[in-house]
Design brief:
This protein is mainly alpha-helical and 182 residues long. Helices cover 73% and strands 0% of the residues.
Length: 182
């Protein structure tokens, strides 16, 4: 089976038959997006990598519970969101606040010192948001999910997510205005 020309639903069906290649292709298709989200949500690359790996392991074990294989990406993202929440809660128990780490800029792209500094300011501003606001902001504006997809991934209502995104944007605007004005 040439797995590059098939849908997620077909890959899920192959993985459920015990074939290794289809699940490997599902990992390849979704790992970059998941890693990006986890790194920005958790602010620590090691925690992000572990959350992504844990999400894939859990998805593999529970693949038979994926009720809509054509929406595998959303189902998998919900698992990742839950893994990030768990990791975040564990870290907060120890640190009292989220600790930001280095989130890499895009590989192979040259960035000026000013661009890197601005990216770091944005990362710091994101880290100051509460976990629910950061999660909603990243899902909406970085991962570009619809509010319905966000609701599926988080288990929150669409109105609650809209409010979180609105408040996150307001807080980020305020924090970044201080940087520009200061």
């Amino acid at each position: 089976m040439d797995v590059t020309d098939v849908t997620d639903a077909e890959l899920v069906a192959g993985a459920l038959r015990g074939e290794a290649a289809p699940f490997a292709e599902l990992i390849l298709r979704h790992q970059d997006r998941m890693a990006r989200y986890a790194a920005r949500m958790l602010g620590d690359l090691r925690d992000a990598e572990e959350a992504v790996q844990d999400a894939f392991i859990r998805a593999h074990r529970a693949l038979h519970q994926c009720e809509a294989p054509d929406r595998f990406g959303g189902w998998l993202f919900r698992i990742l969101v839950n893994r990030c929440r768990t990791r975040g809660r564990r870290r907060r128990r120890y640190n009292e606040t989220f600790v930001t780490g280095d989130v890499p800029v895009e590989p192979g792209v040259d960035h000026t010192a000013e661009q890197v500094a601005w990216r770091e300011e944005i990362q710091r501003a994101l880290a100051r948001l509460g976990p629910e606001q950061r999660e909603a902001f990243l899902l909406k504006h970085v991962e570009e999910l619809s509010y319905e997809e966000m609701a599926q991934a988080t288990g929150s209502s669409v109105p609650a997510l809209k409010m979180r995104v609105k408040r996150a944007c307001e807080h980020l605007r305020e924090q970044l205005a201080e940087v520009v004005d200061g």
